[in-house]
Amino acid sequence: MADKAQLQEAIKTQGEVVRKLKSEKASKEQIDEEVAKLLQLKAQLGGDEGKHVFVLKTAKETLTGKYGEDSKLIYDLKDQGGELLSLRYDLTVPFARYLALNKITNIKRYHIAKVYRRDNPAMTRGRYREFYQCDFDIAGQYDAMIPDAECLKIVYEILNELDLGDFRIKVNDRRILDGMFAVCGVPDEKFRTICSTVDKLDKMAWEDVKKEMVNEKGLSEDVADRIGEYVSMQGGQDLAERLLQDPKLSQNKQAFAGLTDMKLLFSYLELFQVTDKVVFDLSLARGLDYYTGVIYEAILSQTIPASVSTPAEQNGADEAGVSVGSVAGGGRYDGLVGMFDPKGRKVPCVGVSIGIERIFSIMEQKAETSSEKVRTTETQVLVASAQKNLLEERLKLTSELWNAGIKAEVLYKKNPKLLSQLQHCEETGIPLVAILGEQELKDGVVKLRNVASREEVDVPRADLVDEIKKRTL
Amino acid sequence: MADKAQLQEAIKTQGEVVRKLKSEKASKEQIDEEVAKLLQLKAQLGGDEGKHVFVLKTAKETLTGKYGEDSKLIYDLKDQGGELLSLRYDLTVPFARYLALNKITNIKRYHIAKVYRRDNPAMTRGRYREFYQCDFDIAGQYDAMIPDAECLKIVYEILNELDLGDFRIKVNDRRILDGMFAVCGVPDEKFRTICSTVDKLDKMAWEDVKKEMVNEKGLSEDVADRIGEYVSMQGGQDLAERLLQDPKLSQNKQAFAGLTDMKLLFSYLELFQVTDKVVFDLSLARGLDYYTGVIYEAILSQTIPASVSTPAEQNGADEAGVSVGSVAGGGRYDGLVGMFDPKGRKVPCVGVSIGIERIFSIMEQKAETSSEKVRTTETQVLVASAQKNLLEERLKLTSELWNAGIKAEVLYKKNPKLLSQLQHCEETGIPLVAILGEQELKDGVVKLRNVASREEVDVPRADLVDEIKKRTL
How far apart are CA A130 and CA B360, in angstroms? Predict the structure, then answer.
């Protein structure tokens, strides 16, 4: 027990070291090194104690060193008791932590939840600081590219079925990028930062990207130009095959492995019938540090009319309007789970994150311009009456319908006018009205009215549920 | 424009006043007063500017003065740019703010999302610091007690259908409580604090509650005893009628209005057939400040076996085990929306909050003790093969099934053994296996196997989708 107390003391001290470095804005490398020591100490403690801390709190340590240059977007929380806390930045890192702490080696799951970014919001493009993400991930040691292909199939299906217009899914591989940087002559320590610059090619012209590489990141023009040649390449399985013949690239171990997998991936995508939208694009980089293999990003071709967007949001957009940009992205991250495991055990993962709020904002704009009314409820029938003093009968019938699984509504008024009951149906798109009156009650029937056609039929009360079900299939 | 700039300056200054008071831990009354001034200034500013601030950030001001003694459970966030921020405490206050800022006067909606409390977690009872709530609310000016009755019907339905064992829904009314305090002789300014003490009756014996009233809150023994008589009363419509005859209580305007509504509510609950579980209980208080009328709380009778709970969680529990306690609660809050409206326009609301995590933890415990396996996927069929080198054929068939809307899975292995494919079905409860082999491919059929019965039939490939649908209805 003395050892444990010593270890706890050491963790406390090391935690203070980390916090001090952070408050002094020390270099990322220095902080990461001390955080690694802290995690190692916590891993040594092991058992329930360490786990407890992890399970109940999302410590800022969890997020440190995962997001590369995006780290500045993490929402910090006020320290509540000696720990640095932040708001969840994405769903991938928490998923990896969950797998490691629960020793899960095989899982396939989706997750819809909010994440937070200290970014500049752009409302018309559906970019907020707090927003929902929808993630799908496959974790486990499997044969190459099969789960990766399934992720791409899912993105394809979603974008296709939601009918959002034309789209493309760009695919690349971190190993191909790294191999490409190596054969172009980028120094090893600059791979990540050059990767971030390449990632800007979707928003910036090559000229400006090159300028950043040369002027800010210190590459020679030669090296930048060689990168420029590669990143202009786009294709499919054919491009992978062609690059496998590239004398320089194919000699690089990383690039060779990436290109071989890319070729295999496209053969599976062919079977899944999605190759019409998937493009192998060497300019796709994605900023996050945790990717280790295949990466991808889905882009809608559709633009938002210029009249809807604000000038600030039109930066870099063409005259026709603002591009919605990326609506889904992801890739393979085989090292992330191991970073949370005390013994560093790896669980290979591949996943995709769908930007559902952006997709929603497009669907809303589409609905607004279309003449078709979007229903916000699934109510099948409104229980109404044409006469006064029938509230109790209305409530009784509503309850009967609810108990039978019918989606029924009733106006919360003692004596609503028939007209306002019918108007409510027209406004909200309720297709049927069940009308009660003295006569109907006497006859044991309900008058069932079709709101659109205004047709009315008397239905025996015992048959009402079946009749409503038949008409609202 | 000069006026606007002045107003903005005034808002900034007033914001600093509020922050200073808070940092000095000034009294709640003093802070509330200054916050009110701040809100008034912001309301004067009006227009897009004020709205913008509200829409993008949940300022701590939003939560101040809404939760009574529970305010200490709000998770504060670190100030990100001159504003005090906190994590969402419940879904009711954000809902009210949403209505006010979007000028919505009629809505009925449910909302499932996370909320945060700085509370002591109790894992076995499903109490965490971060947890999901599921709220249902009806907003709008309607005839008395009709939406209130619907909320109770919904709680009844949920608890009934989830088969969580016996339960009770306690109902009371803030106006009845206030009237009761008045006729018992509680000074006006002590209503809220005495209300909080009464609220503890579900966890503490009357003797201890009385002690708190007398020793801590300064009531005389007489007054406490008079309260004690009322709060021991339970009943239904009959109790409401009896108390309407109570010479003291019926003379109090507030109590009279509350009792009249309670009587009406029970007449509607009778029509909804839920009175077997709903109890009018004068000891129900609920701690939150925003309730103005009917309040209710649903309590499961079931207990968690003592062996599962930790000693710390057994505080106040009987020998048999730990009570799960309240799993739903809510009430009427007619004043909350008006607090966010610049002109104070009121929108009456009634709602209920379901403690879905507590309900989940009970259902999980039930599932663990039952022999029946809980499926975690809805997969209808696994696409398998008995021979090697058929991965491509498996992927092709899987894609066909996906495209036809069938929930299909395939193992991510090049050459999995048939046995491990069948084992996967047994472990995860997949009912059917579609088996491909050289012979089947030649014959244009698929061998469809029922996992449970081990029966196999050859199905023509063109009929496979229909056959799977028929068997997995």
Answer: 27
